[in-house]
Design a protein that fits this description.
It is a single chain. The protein is mainly beta. It has one domain: predicted glycosyltransferase like domains (Thrombin, subunit H, Beta Barrel). Helix content is 4%, strand content 49%. The protein is built from 1 helix and 6 strands. It has one helix at residues 13-17; strands at 26-32, 38-48, 52-57, 66-73, 83-96, 104-118. A 6-stranded antiparallel beta barrel has the order 1-2-3-6-5-4. The termini are far apart.
């Protein structure tokens, strides 16, 4: 587990029973940083569930910040083609960590609306 969920403000019983998947998917995170500037940063998703995404960022963000995630989901046995998932959410947890490659561990409470689009690959 990446961090103790009981330390997150507003954690609910529902969140404790929700299934979370530890995935290492490339993710583009965009939003407004703590200084009020727009940013875009590539990182890898650490875990995701129906309500929460967890990842590391160098860009400083604050609790309550709205961020957009763009994930490239590769095809699998069940998924016939690569997809791009775009979803937004609000930061609910920030933990600084100087020992990590990235500066902050971020927990994002996901909104229910999302977009899924096929990734167009070039055919030779």
């Amino acid at each position: 587990m990446l961090f103790d969920k009981s330390s997150i403000q507003g954690a609910t019983r529902l969140a404790k029973t929700e299934r979370s998947f530890e995935l290492s998917l490339p993710t583009l995170v965009s939003g407004i940083d703590a200084t009020g500037n727009e940013f875009k940063e590539y990182t890898e998703l650490a875990s995701i569930s129906a309500q929460e995404a967890v990842f590391w960022l160098d860009s400083g963000v604050t609790i309550g910040s709205k961020l957009k995630l763009s994930l490239d989901v590769p095809k699998t046995v069940l998924l016939e083609s690569d997809l791009k998932l775009e979803i937004t959410g609000r930061v609910t947890f920030v933990k600084a960590d100087q020992s990590s490659e990235k500066k902050q561990l971020i927990s994002l409470r996901l909104e229910k609306k999302y977009k899924i689009n096929p990734l167009h690959s070039k055919k030779i």
